[in-house]
Amino acid sequence: MPDPPRVTISIPAYNAEDTISETLESILDQTYPNVEIIVSDNHSTDRTCEIVRSYNGRGVRLVTCPVMYQPTGSPLDNTNASIGNWNSLVDLGSGDLMTIYHADDVYEKDIVESEVNFFLEHPECSAVFTGCTLIDERGKFTSHDPVRLPKALTGRSIFDFSAVLNGLMRDGLMLVAPSIMLRREAWRRAGRLDRRFEQAVDTEMWLRLAKEGPIGIIDQLLVRRRIHGKSDSSRGLIAYRHAMLPFIDVFEAYLADPSVVPLVEDCTMERYRFYRAGEQARVAINFLADGNTEKWKECLSESRDISLRGYAKHTRRAAAWILVAQCLTFLETLGLGMPVARRFFGYSMK
Fold first, then answer.
1. What's the whole-model pTM score?
2. Out of 255-259, 273-277, 313-317, 322-326, which region has the weakest mean confidence (pLDDT)?
3. 75: Cβ–Cβ under 8 A, 6 or more apart, which residues?
4. Which residues are bridge partners to 61 per DSSP?
5. How far apart are CA 342 and CA 220, in angstroms?
6. Is the pLDDT of residue 284 over 60?
7. Quick one: which H or E segment has residue 11?
8. Strand ranges, E, within 60-204
9. Which 8-state DSSP code applies to residue 2?
10. 288 and 266 in contact (C-beta within 8 Å)?
11. Structural domains in the chain, sorted by start
């Protein structure tokens, strides 16, 4: 009987002293035996390295990211630094299978075994993800619903490029980044993360991986994902106050490819246009709240043409932004639009 495949568990880390021990303990408790554990520290300034070194006797290896990012003061500094760290992971370790597990999340003891078994059953796949629950800074479960397959996709476990693209654009498919296990060679063929896509860099990477081989999803809650104020998503609330979320850049890049357009279903395109209009409305509202009426009018150009008639089959978040923008448009004719926008949206992006 062949030996079980070797898995390189790679963990990019930066200033993770508060969480790295819990993460490592959950990984050391895995039921799958043939693993190597490597923490790639991104030049932390806290006790992260000291804590990781204390696990050396238990088989945890510490390396330093070869590229040191120079901060610019942008809310995206952490994102840009982590991209370089992630890209260095592909050359670490010896396993044909590898993970990108996160230094602030907690892993159920059978996640590695479940993902390896999935690959053994589906050798054509390039990567596999799982679902997750959400925890807070103290490790307590939050009131948010777990992240798993959308109802429209329940019962499926393998998704080719077309299914991943349409799932992301239409069905709310969420590929849980800290759960990924992937084939090292598939990542090398797909290429490294493209920093142009900023906080959506992982989403764009998953699409490239899906071109190398189908994506698998284990619809089980095998990660406890930590949500806290220092996370990249929280920083994004500031970074994208006056810009659409970078998922738009990802989808626009793929829609510009003539070979991809025929794969996008009509209902997918309809929902995407609605989502994009909602993003434009959100940005427009923030411009109005900040006193920039010229940008407010410019950003409304597309959302004004969107009807809310079919909002139930679209994202309610986008519908809410479009509805608020339409109300503010009316109030602006009375000279009340800016005061109302400033009152409700002038201090932070909701």
1. 0.91
2. 313-317
3. 235, 236, 238, 239
4. 38
5. 43
6. yes
7. strand 7-13
8. 60-64, 97-100, 106-107, 127-135, 158-159, 181-183
9. P
10. no
11. 7-236 (3.90.550.10), 265-345 (no CATH)
